[in-house]
Each structure stands twice: as C-alpha cells, then as structure tokens.
Amino acid sequence: MEMIRKKLPLLLALLLLLTSIVGCTGTPGDSSASDVGSSAASPATDEPSQAADGEKKTLTIWRGQGTDGEEALYNSEISGFNAQSADTVIEYEVFPYDDFGQTVRAAAATDSLPELVYLDGTEVANHAFIQSIIPITSYIDDEFKAKYADSAFSYYKDELYGVNQQDGGLALWANRAHLEAAEVRIPSYEEPWTADEFVTVLEALKEVEEVRYPLDMATSGGGYVIYAWQPWIVSFGGDWYNHDTLTATGALDSEETVGAISYIMDLAAKGLWNPDETSGSEFIDRRSSLVLTGHWTYVEYSENLGDDLMLVPMPDLGNGSQTAVGGLSFCVTPVAEQNGVVQNAVDFIKFALGDEFQSQVNDANGSLPVNKEILASLDVFKDGATLSLYAKQLSGGRFAVRPPSPAFPTYQEQVGTAVMNIISGGDIKSELESAAQRIDEVIEANQYNA
Predict the structure, then answer these.
(1) In sequence order, what are the beta bridge partners of 159?
(2) Strand partners, 91
(3) Could you give the domains of the chain?
(4) E-assigned strands of 364-438?
(5) In terms of Cα–Cα distance, which of 96, 101, 30 is closest to 66?
(6) Dihedral of alpha carbons 382, 386, 392, 395, sign
(7) CB neighbours of 325 closer than 8 A, spacing ≥ 6?
C-alpha cells in the first residue's frame, strides 16, 4: 500500500473532522473523513513474515485502557502468544479509553499507526471508511468462523475488518434484599416489568429504609448514553437511526424516541433516579436498588453485594424488554500490510480467541465469550445462574444495535450532547431535532451512504 498517496486525503479528512466538531459545538469524537478508496489485504496463503536474519518480527497493538481484569487477560494473551511464536513478537501500548478512536484517526492521518488496533466494534465502519484498518476477509476461513457467534465478526461493505473476543451484557443489576423488602414482583426474561409497573416498583423501592434513589442510571456521559439508553428507546418504538438509510432524521427525532426520553426524564422528575449520580457507587453503597450498567461491573458488584446481587431485565415499554450488544474488535492496519506482516497479525488474533482465553473472558469482566461451545459450558450462563439473563437476551435476539455506520462517532457525539442537554433542562424535541440535523449533514458531506 502506498502510504504517501493516502496521507493527504487523511489529513484533509482530519481537517473536515475538526470543522464538523466546531460546527456542531460538541466534544471530540466526531468523524468526518473523506472517502479515500479501499484497501485489499494480501492472500491468506501468505506465510508469517520473519526477518531475513532469522529474528522475529515485532508488531505493536494499541488498545484503550481496560479494567484490571481486562488488562490482565490482554497481557496474558500477548505473553502466551510471544512464548509460543517462532516468528512474531507482540508489543502493546495503552491509551485513554474514551478518546481511543480519535487517537487512531489522528495516527492514520500522520502515518503513525501500529500494526494492530483493538477498537470498539462501533468504530470499525468509520475506520474502514478512512482506511486506518484493512480487510482481513481472506485470512479468516469458514471453519474458524463456525466456532464463534456471528457478533464476533465486524464487517463493512461485506468485507471483514475486525474480530471480537467477547459479547456485551446489559440489564439492570438489582439488590435482591431491596426487592424483597419492597415486596415487588421479581421480573424475568419471559415476564419483564411493564412501563406502568416499573414506576410502581420504583416508588415502592424508594420507601425501603436505606434507599435514597431507587434507580441509578449511571449516566456518566454521551458515549455511554448511546449504548445504555438505546434499549429503552427501541422498547418504546423509536431508535437513534433509520435502519434502512442509516440517517437520523425521522428516527432520532421521532415521536417514539421523544416519548421514550420523556418517560425516562419523568422518572427523574418524580425523584426515582438522580441525574447527578454518574458512577454507580450509590448501588454499591446500597442507597440505590437498581443500576443501569453492564457486564464490566460484575466482579466489583458481586464482591460488594454478594448473594444480594442479581440481574433483572429492563422494563417492557411497549415493544419488548431490550438489551444492548457490542464488543471490541481486533483489527489490522495498513502498516501491517506495508510491512508484510498481515498474516503474523492474524495469527495473534486467532491465538487470542483460543479456548484458553475464551474460558477466561467472563472472569475478566463478566462479558460473554463468543466461542459458542465455551459459552454454553460455563455454569454462570446456564438457566437460573447469575448471568443467565445475558445469554437469554442474546440468544433471543432482544437487543438494539448502535448505528453500524461510518458516521457512528458523529452519532455518539450528537446523541450524547442532546441527552446531556436534556438532563440539564433542554427541550427534548428540539434537542433531538438539532442532533438529527447535524448528524445527517455530516453523513451527506462525507457521502457515507454513497
């Protein structure tokens, strides 16, 4: 690949990115890169590359900072691979998680990428569009793919660009002792709370002696909103985007989406959740009974609540109880292609998705391994076990998918800004209309849907 040829378009892409952020008065994280064509990986029959003098090739992977358990798993994958590989050494660098996508985009514009990046799956389409990652379709055969859930593979325009080692889990963590004290019905996957019942449940929980706010939405910022609030929106009949056109107008600002956010904000107006609480600590301290967060809190919550910790589904607001999905993708960059080490990079990806590490994924952060046999074998996901709800939600197809578009960084920034403005007192309808307009302007300017 001719990196020099691509440098100017990427620099122009970054300039347009910054212009769109200023125009949208939002935070960094928007993507407005120009289309610079496609990149083809070398054939899958290539042997792993090794230096002429017999020394191992050194590849670097970048990733956003994970939890302690995740970091231990990632480092174990790298050290294990290095110990057994005859031709490759993997090194790594860790960056702040929230800004990682933008870090990779900036590196692409300045020809300073590593060989591998570990991206949020929602970012894959954008990075494929600007060619900061390359397709690896020919390197991953059907026999390998058959072992894993479909959600383990991140595609853009029918080309495979990323492989995930975990699935997400999202529901309401609950304090069983509080539910029993309030004498409310324990919901199930088959029978979640209805919209009206959920309000009644929260009002009953508010009367439990140690409870201050029964629900903790853990709304720490815009990046979290687009993930954790989407299931509520979809359950109400709305969504952030039109699934046919991948545009926002008519979906993000629809009557249904407005209604869903109005429902959530009405709960706050009734004193049932605190918009100023962002960390989830109220749940740990038993001052909240329910908290909206995901699998990554499992270890911490179980250590603090013990047998009182349980999962319950989100309420059915009219279109079924929903969850959210998403993982992190191992992706290969043009630097690996330039250096002739794509096969080396893919060898590491396959090793990291091996049975040994898939068996450790849940222990690391409570997530779901994507190896289908291993997921089915773990006691914690079996019927009646602590995390069985996660497996049921995924296998039952009750999940919302964030916008699978190169415009995802713009969606994340604009949806997050709109919701945080609403929490601060902004008008729901006008905030969503403004966000939808700005998103669609970026989509049109970049010809994302061309």
Answers:
(1) 156
(2) 60
(3) 3-168+326-370 (3.40.190.10), 170-324+405-435 (3.40.190.10)
(4) 368-369, 399-400
(5) 96
(6) negative
(7) 151, 167, 168, 170, 394, 399, 400, 401
pLDDT tens by residue, the chain, 450 residues? 434 333 433 443 443 343 333 333 232 233 333 232 333 333 333 556 665 556 899 999 999 999 888 999 999 999 999 999 999 999 999 999 888 999 999 999 999 999 999 999 999 999 999 999 999 999 999 999 999 998 899 999 999 999 999 998 899 999 999 999 999 999 999 999 999 999 999 999 999 999 999 999 988 777 889 999 999 999 999 999 999 999 999 999 999 999 999 999 999 999 999 998 777 689 999 999 999 999 888 889 999 999 999 999 999 999 999 999 888 999 999 999 999 999 999 999 999 999 999 999 998 888 999 999 999 999 999 999 999 999 999 888 889 999 999 999 999 999 999 999 999 999 999 999 999 999 999 999 999 987
Which of 170, 131, 153 minimizes the C-alpha distance to 34?
131
Rg value, the chain, Cα: 22
Pairing of strands 116-120, 328-332: antiparallel
- One-letter amino acid identity for 149? A
Determine the angle formed by the axes of helices 428-446 and 408-423, rounding to 10 degrees.
160
Three-point CA angle 18, 20, 23, nearest 5°: 110
Residue 33: closest CA among 111, 136, 106, 115: 106
* Model confidence, pTM: 0.80
Burial 35-63 (b: 16+ CB within 10 A, else e): ebeebebeeeebebbeeeeeebbebbbbb
- State how far the Cα of 258 lies from the Cα of 247, in Å rounded to an integer: 17
Residue 178 contacts residue 208 (beta carbons within 8 Å) = yes
Which SS3 state, helix, strand or coil, does residue 446 take? helix
* Structure-block tokens of residue 330: 């191992």
Residue corresponding to tokens 């090793």: 351
The residue assigned the tokens 């230096």 is: 51
The span from the CA of 189 to the CA of 350, in Å, is: 34
